Known about the structure:
By secondary structure, the protein is α+β, with helices and mostly antiparallel strands. It contains three helices and four strands; from the N terminus they run ββααββα. A four-stranded mixed beta sheet has the order 3-2-1-4, with helices on one face. The radius of gyration is 13 Å and the shape is globular. It starts with a strand and ends in a 9-residue tail after the last helix. The mean pLDDT is 91.
Amino acid sequence: MIVRIMGEGQVRLDDSHLTELNKLDDELLAEMESADEAGFRRTLSTLLDSVRRLGAPLPDEALEPSDLILPSPDATLDEVRAMLTDEGLIPG
């Protein structure tokens, strides 16, 4: 799976990591619903760090279609809300 982090680039990530990332996505959704800005920042950072750690960055010149698009590290609650689907940021 190809994951794009807005403003950073793309990462190739094995589907086997989706369970771990979905747990963080669920946590992020709960923090957004309760307007927990500090928790939201912490969990968004953890989610993006996990994608970077578990994935392999694609070269900047690679133009692969992204299977998943995640917000930039400095995204606001409102910007992330606009990106949400019924399943959160990460399907599954």
